[in-house]
Design a protein that fits this description.
By secondary structure, this protein is an alpha+beta fold. The chain has 3 domains: about 1-40 and about 425-450; about 50-205, Sandwich (Immunoglobulin-like), CATH 2.60.40; about 255-405, Lamin Tail domain (Immunoglobulin-like). The protein has 8 helices and 24 strands. The protein has helices spanning about 1-40, 135-140, 210-220, 230-250, 270-275, 320-325, 395-400, 425-450, and strands at about 50-55, 75-80, 85, 90-95, 100, 105-110, 115, 125, 145, 150-155, 175, 190-195, 255-265, 275-280, 285, 290-295, 300-305, 310, 315-320, 335-340, 345-350, 360, 365-370, 405. The strands form 6 sheets. The chain has a 6-stranded mixed beta sheet. Strands 23-22-13-14-19-24 form a 6-stranded mixed beta sheet. Strand 20 (about 335-340) and strand 21 (about 345-350) form a beta hairpin. Helix 1 packs antiparallel against helix 8 and helix 3 (about 210-220) crosses helix 4. The longest helix has about 40 residues, at about 1-40. The radius of gyration is 31 Å and the shape is globular. The two termini are about 20 Å apart.
Length: about 450
C-alpha cells in the first residue's frame, strides 16, 4: 500500500515538474523567437554606409541614351578615421533580390568614397558586371550592406511600394543620403540629387529643403500668369535649377584656398614629420568637407577632409603625414588640392628636396626655406634663392599676420541611431536557450526514473 502511494506521489510530482518545465521552456522560447531576428539584422556601428545609388543609370557619352540604364552604380562612404578593407563585403539586392554582389577586393579611405559600377566610368573604384537594380523598388528590395562576417552594416528603407524612395529615372538623378551618420532605413534621410547623374565620389548635393526655399522665393517674384504660359513654367524651372546649382557652387567654389607650404624631407623621421599646409585667402571661414589632397607620383594617395574641418579667414591649416597618409617623395613629387566636385583648385610640384627645408610659396613663386613655418606666414632666409615677390594682393595677404588653425587629430562620428537591438544581447540569448534545454533534459530524466 505504501509503495503504491509513494509511486502515485512521484507520478504527481513528475507531472507538476514537467508542466512547470514546459512553461519555462515555452517562455524562454518565445523570448528567443522575438529577439533572435533582431539580433540577425543588428547594426552595431555604421563605419561604412550606403551613400548614393544611381538605380536608374547614368547619362554618358560612352553609350546611346537607350543604354544609359546599364551605367548603374552605388557609392559607399567611410564615416571613420580608419582605412577599411572591403574584401568579401557584400551588397544584397544589388544584383538580384535573392542574391548578393560580393566585393572581391578593395579598400575605402578615411572619410572617403568607394563607387561600385556596372560598367567602367572615370569615377569608379570597382567594376562588377552583375551589378543591377530593378526600377521597381518593391521588386528590387531594400539594399543591404554586409561585411565579410555577414554582419549587417547598413540598409536602405524597407519598400512600401513600386517607387524608389528618391531619385528620378528620366533625368538620371540619383538617390542621395542626406546625413551619413543617421539612420539609412529612415526615408526622411534620403533625397533626390540636385544634379543629373548625382555626385559619384564626392559630397552629396544640398538638402531638398533648400530647393523649396528657392522655389518659394522665385514664385513670389513671378506674376500669377505663369500657370497660363508653359514657356514661363519652363523658365521658372530652369531658374530654380540654376539657382540651386549657383547656391551649391557658392558654398563649394572657393578660389582663394591655396597650398602654401610643404615639408617633404624633414630633419626627423619622414613618417612623423612630413606635413602639408593650406592657406585661406578669404575674409570668411571655409569648410573643407569633401575636399581632397592627393600626391602625383608613386603610389597615389588621396586624403579626404572630414566634414568637421574648417579653415579660418586668412588662416592656415596643417595636415600631417600621420593624418593624411600621403608620402612626399624626397627625390621629386607634387600634390593637388581638389574641391568636393573634384576640381583641382591648386597644385605644386618640386624636384629633389633638401633636408630640413620646406617648399614655401611667396607670391606667385616657390622657394626652399631653411626656416619651416607650419601654421604661420612663410619666411625666406636664403637670399641666393630669393626672388622679388610681385606686389599683388595675394602676396600682401600671405605676408599679413595670421592665426593658426588647429587640425583635429581624431574625429569621432556620432553613434548610429538605428532602432535595432544591439549585438550585446546575443550572449544573453544563448544562455537563455541553454537554460531552456537544460530544464527540458531534467524533466525528461525525472519522468524516465518515475516510470522505472
Amino acid at each position: 500500500m505504501l509503495d503504491k502511494l509513494s509511486l502515485q506521489k512521484k507520478q504527481i510530482l513528475t507531472i507538476c515538474w514537467c508542466s512547470f518545465a514546459k512553461k519555462i521552456f515555452f517562455t524562454i522560447f518565445v523570448f528567443a523567437l522575438l529577439n533572435w531576428p533582431l539580433n540577425i539584422i543588428a547594426i552595431s556601428a555604421q563605419q561604412v554606409v550606403i551613400n548614393e545609388i544611381a538605380w536608374a543609370g547614368t547619362k554618358t557619352n560612352l553609350a546611346p541614351s537607350h543604354l544609359w540604364w546599364q551605367y548603374e552604380w552605388i557609392e559607399l562612404y567611410n564615416n571613420s578615421a580608419e582605412t577599411i578593407d572591403l574584401t568579401n563585403w557584400r551588397i544584397e539586392a544589388a544584383q538580384s533580390k535573392d542574391s548578393a554582389l560580393i566585393i572581391s577586393n578593395g579598400v575605402i579611405e578615411p572619410y572617403g568614397y568607394f563607387v561600385i559600377c556596372k560598367k567602367a566610368m572615370e569615377f569608379c573604384h570597382y567594376v562588377h558586371s552583375k551589378l543591377s537594380f530593378n526600377n521597381s523598388y518593391d521588386k528590387n528590395g531594400a539594399v543591404v550592406l554586409k561585411d565579410a562576417s555577414l554582419s549587417v552594416i547598413d540598409a536602405t528603407p524597407i519598400p512600401s511600394g513600386a517607387f524608389w524612395p528618391k531619385g528620378k529615372n528620366q533625368t538620371k538623378q540619383t538617390m542621395e543620403r542626406i546625413n551619413p551618420q543617421h539612420n539609412g532605413q529612415d526615408v526622411s534621410n534620403w533625397q533626390t540629387s540636385a544634379f543629373e547623374n548625382g555626385t559619384p565620389g564626392k559630397m552629396n548635393s544640398q538638402p531638398e529643403s533648400q530647393v523649396s526655399e528657392i522655389t518659394n522665393v522665385l514664385a513670389a517674384s513671378t506674376t500669377p500668369q505663369i500657370n497660363k504660359d508653359d514657356n514661363k513654367e519652363e523658365n521658372l524651372s530652369a531658374q530654380v535649377s540654376f539657382s540651386l546649382q549657383e547656391q551649391n557652387n557658392k558654398s563649394r567654389d572657393y578660389k582663394n584656398i591655396f597650398i602654401n607650404e610643404i615639408m617633404p624631407a624633414p630633419l626627423g623621421t619622414d613618417s612623423e614629420n612630413e606635413w602639408i599646409e593650406l592657406y585661406n585667402n578669404n575674409d570668411f571661414e571655409v569648410s573643407l568637407a569633401g575636399w581632397q589632397i592627393k600626391d602625383q607620383t608613386g603610389a597615389i594617395t588621396r586624403y579626404n577632409f572630414p566634414a568637421s574641418v574648417k579653415i579660418a579667414p586668412q588662416g592656415f591649416l596643417v595636415v600631417s603625414r600621420k593624418e593624411s597618409k600621403i608620402t612626399l617623395n624626397n627625390s621629386a613629387d607634387g600634390i593637388e588640392l581638389l574641391d568636393m566636385l573634384g576640381t583641382i583648385k591648386d597644385s605644386v610640384s618640386y624636384s629633389k628636396a633638401p633636408k630640413g627645408k620646406s617648399w614655401s610659396k611667396i607670391g606667385a613663386s616657390w622657394q626652399w626655406s631653411a626656416v619651416p613655418t607650419p601654421g604661420q606666414k612663410n619666411i625666406i632666409t636664403n637670399t641666393t634663392q630669393s626672388q622679388t615677390p610681385s606686389s599683388t594682393p595675394e602676396n600682401q595677404l600671405l605676408m599679413a599676420q595670421t592665426t593658426k588653425t588647429v587640425f583635429p587629430k581624431q574625429i569621432t562620428s556620432q553613434q548610429n541611431n538605428l532602432p535595432l537591438v544591439s549585438k550585446k544581447k546575443l550572449p544573453a540569448l544563448i544562455v537563455a536557450l541553454m537554460i531552456a534545454l537544460a530544464s527540458s533534459f531534467i524533466a525528461w530524466q525525472i519522468k524516465k526514473r518515475s516510470v522505472l
